[in-house]
Design a protein that fits this description.
This protein is mainly alpha-helical. It has 2 domains: 48 residues; 230 residues, MetI-like fold (Orthogonal Bundle). The protein is 75% helix and 1% strand.
Length: 301
């Protein structure tokens, strides 16, 4: 009797597990369908369109890799590629160390940490349109920073109107708006730090700096890798804030790959070249993310 009861229960568990997988697949289908239609299909279509010469309504003309050859001989494309890389290279060392240290200070609950946590995250909830127009007004000579400096008798030049300075004005806007989200991500990562290890280090006489460099940073290195990868991809795909503040100007000084893609595809209606830029941007993001993860993993090990 006991054996029969055991076999019946075992059969019920096996059948329940089989039915469980059916329910898992059933609930995954809508999400996978949405992901394939909004992510996978556009990527495949971009790769396909990059091989055609197409201006919308007319018939597509297959040109192979000619769109890519045309791009790499274009001075505007080369400039936009350099602007994108420069934007990323300046953004990474500016945001990661500062956000990491500020998040650690919030984790240590130094001062009115709740107030500062609110202040740091507040710009993240603002629309990029609002941030862009606000900074445009702030940088104008007759209002904001310009008005204050002129009142003090100091010569002021609008950085967004100068080709050499415009990229730094845009980076300042990105820094101000999105620094808070990195702080929140690091702060969340610090919540998983093993308190007993930190307490043991304190008992052994370790200073705060020793604990920070020898315990906190190694244990939170995976969070650093994730946040760095997110920042890298965001810097490569930046569009809205730059488009609102400068539109890619002056004289293409802030025209990133995303803005160049937009100009080709929707201003000039050259969907083939626009798709080629999208493919290059995709491959660049993928390559840099893989390289970054491997480099940071080796550095950590």
């Amino acid at each position: 009797m006991k054996t029969d009861f055991y076999l019946k229960n075992k059969n019920k568990k096996v059948s329940w597990r089989k039915n469980q997988w059916k329910w898992v697949v059933l609930f995954l289908i809508p999400g996978m369908a949405l992901y394939c239609s909004l992510v996978i299909y556009p990527v495949i279509e971009a790769f396909r369109l990059s091989l055609f010469h197409w201006y919308g309504g007319e018939e597509k003309l297959f040109v192979g890799l000619n769109n890519f050859r045309t791009l790499f001989t274009s001075e505007i494309f080369k400039s936009s590629l350099w602007v994108t890389i420069k934007y990323m290279l300046i953004n990474l060392p500016l945001q990661i160390p500062v956000s990491y240290v500020l998040a650690y200070l919030l984790y240590k609950k130094i001062g009115p940490f709740r107030f500062f946590r609110f202040v740091f995250f507040l710009p993240c909830v603002l629309l990029s349109v609002v941030v862009g127009y606000t900074l445009n007004i702030l940088f104008t000579p007759w209002f904001g920073i310009g008005a204050v400096l002129k009142g003090l008798g100091i010569k002021y030049v609008n950085p967004l109107a100068e080709p050499r300075l415009a990229i730094y004005g845009v980076i300042f806007g990105d820094y101000w708006q999105w620094l808070g989200i990195k702080i929140v991500l690091f702060y969340a990562g610090f919540q998983d730090l093993p308190v007993e290890i930190l307490e043991a280090a304190t008992i052994d006489g370790a200073s705060e700096l020793q604990k920070f460099f020898r315990i906190v940073i190694p244990l939170s290195w995976h969070t650093v890798t994730t946040v760095t990868a997110l920042l890298l991809m965001g810097s490569l795909r930046v569009f809205d804030l730059v488009f609102i503040m400068t539109g890619g100007g002056p004289n293409h000084a802030t025209e990133t790959l995303s803005i160049h893609l937009f100009n080709l595809a929707f201003d000039q209606m050259d969907f083939g070249s626009g798709s080629a830029v999208a493919v290059i941007l995709f491959l660049l993001s993928l390559t840099l993310t893989i390289v970054l993860r491997r480099v940071m993993q080796r550095f950590f090990n």
